[in-house]
């Protein structure tokens, strides 16, 4: 056995040798403090009150975090919010856990994540679905990155195909809360319907959202599935044969309302035909946000010391948003409509069509 004194001496010599060889990393403009070593790096996440099993944007965020754990070898941590009162304490708890990067999922996490970023410049932060706001103004911090999505572009395509396949000539939408990340879906949806009407001399009607007035039907939260069911039933009674619920888990109330009926649904955030396979024959398509990829990329950048405060904006061009395949309803969409959708998508990507929204990120 080697004497303990000799082991200590060897360890000290090794440490000094390593210290002499290592050069401090150079800082680059616009980048945050040095990244922690891979073995120390910990990426953390706070859900909004929908929880990580919402089959929507919280779940998508968690998928990105777990992918980073598997592929990048980072440690992860997370806290799940049940009420808005949980947001700030949950963020603070992750600060206490010495997380290297803390990601808040959803517009509602703005205040908690923003304040923590200000108080802890040594930690990197990201916010899914919103820019950082204070007193109704966008604020920028060197250690805080918005992960936002121009969902109006994908919703435009969903609106077009919804109008094209509606038998009643009326489709509908409603939101969870009246916030920009919800309204933007319905803005694009409305414009897609309008485009279909202009191209085909039709007058398909949208109920539940008035783009010009920026008002419509809202549940008031992202939890009350019974209210989502009630709103859906009201819209169906007004003639709607397709509903787009932009309300996270509340959308499950819509699925319950239309089950067994000849009413279609457009999902949001993720591919609902895959999330709800038992009702895939009623899900025309979904307006998908690649939240998981955005989260993964943010973790990778932070781990590699390349994290910046520049906003990530997902759109059709960078494949950050899109519409999902038609799956079981593929035969219900005429070939000429599919061709038109591809042409519209190309025109949006090429900048020939600009999908305007007051809620653009």
From TrEMBL:
Family of the protein in this entry: Belongs to the BMP lipoprotein family.
Keywords: Cell membrane, Lipoprotein, Membrane, Signal
Signal peptide per UniProt: 1-19
Protein name according to UniProt: Basic membrane protein
Major site of localization recorded for this protein: membrane
InterPro entries in the record: BMP_lipoprotein, Mycoplasma_p48, Peripla_BP_I, PnrA-like
GO cellular component terms given for this protein: plasma membrane
Membrane topology: Lipid-anchor
Residue span, ABC transporter substrate-binding protein PnrA-like domain: 43-355
Disulfide bond in keyword set: no
Location of this chain's protein in the cell: Cell membrane
